[in-house]
Amino acid sequence: MNTPQPASSPTLADPDTPFAVVDVHKSLRNIERLATRADRLGVTLRPHVKTAKSLDVAALMHSGTGPCPVTVSTLAEAEAFADGGYTDITYAVGIDPHKLPRVIALLDRGVTLRILLDSTEQAEFVTGAAREAGIRIPTQIEIDCDGHRGGLRTDAPALVGIGRTLHEAGCLDGVLVHAGESYFAHSAEEQRLAAKNERDTAVTAAERLRAAGLPVHTVSVGSTPTAHAADDLSGITELRAGNYVFFDLVMAGLGVCQIDDLALSVVVTVIGHRPEYGWIVTDGGWMAMSRDRGTAGQPLDQGYGLVTDLHGNLVQGLVMSAASQEHGTLTARDGAVLPELPVGTRLRILPNHACATAAQHRGYHVIDSSRPARPQHAPAIQSVWERVSGW
């Protein structure tokens, strides 16, 4: 929940480090960018809240006009967002029998909670539970467009049979596709082709089901790279993305955003120096940043993150190159001179993977870079936003 701060607001110089920071100005800018694109493409935007896992961040997505459709990655998220008034939710992880009672409980509350599956076995236990409970469990069939993860190929013999099993129980909602391999598409053209393949795959699967006389209401696609690269979403009903609300160094490395668009960072403190090794040591290790090294496979490896001052200005040539549990190591690269940063200096680290870094923290200290602090003062903390945790 949004925790208002006292009249004399603290700044980024006050809380014990490490802690996560969200720049609300940059988040709003990122949100507006994709909302405008989805509107131009003629599709409903269903943000994936798995990145921020925050009702306060989600509220930015609909400008206080009422809860928007959302995608979740855990039932804990679904339950928390239902408690927050969200009634149109897609749980985009394959279902298992043990989770169905929680699904049914949300449906009984009046929440439209769509679930996901890609096998005959899942379809049978879902429809059995639906009949036993006397309710409809809206279900989407996951379609595989690039071999990244789960899903059925569009020509899978089981596809129509699964669709028919769901339809006979009143449970067939549609199809869902995620272009996971787009995170390895290193050019605008590769991303455009990934988006086209994602769209074509989803439409083909929907047409195959419809040709068998089965209704397909939802045709859902999305990933942050493809959402920003798609130029034609004909036949698609909704677009999903989540990382875009914060962005990160992986997305910047793909060219989906700029470094200045990154809205999430982690404040750390310099706690030591090892000049013989060229190290500056901080109190922010992988417990603060995560173990994600997503830029390691990109042309420019950003280590565990890039370094800025408290105002968000990059410290040129400084990178978080190594991490242990509670220690981060900063080093200079590309011939840069290691800066003089005394013990006690506070810095911000921009993460490789926003979802993974955010998950290391209980909440976000919120700043607004559209209200710049005076140079001698750290940015003010506007509020503290909690995150949803657990599964």
Automatic annotation (TrEMBL):
<keyword id="KW-0456">Lyase</keyword>
<dbReference type="GO" id="GO:0036088">
    <property type="term" value="P:D-serine catabolic process"/>
</dbReference>
<dbReference type="InterPro" id="IPR042208">
    <property type="entry name" value="D-ser_dehydrat-like_sf"/>
</dbReference>
<comment type="similarity">
    <text>Belongs to the DSD1 family.</text>
</comment>
<dbReference type="InterPro" id="IPR051466">
    <property type="entry name" value="D-amino_acid_metab_enzyme"/>
</dbReference>
<feature type="domain" description="D-serine dehydratase-like">
    <location>
        <begin position="263"/>
        <end position="368"/>
    </location>
</feature>
<dbReference type="Pfam" id="PF01168">
    <property type="entry name" value="Ala_racemase_N"/>
</dbReference>
<dbReference type="InterPro" id="IPR001608">
    <property type="entry name" value="Ala_racemase_N"/>
</dbReference>
<dbReference type="InterPro" id="IPR029066">
    <property type="entry name" value="PLP-binding_barrel"/>
</dbReference>
<dbReference type="GO" id="GO:0008721">
    <property type="term" value="F:D-serine ammonia-lyase activity"/>
</dbReference>
<dbReference type="InterPro" id="IPR026956">
    <property type="entry name" value="D-ser_dehydrat-like_dom"/>
</dbReference>
<dbReference type="Pfam" id="PF14031">
    <property type="entry name" value="D-ser_dehydrat"/>
</dbReference>
<protein>
    <submittedName>
        <fullName>Alanine racemase</fullName>
    </submittedName>
</protein>
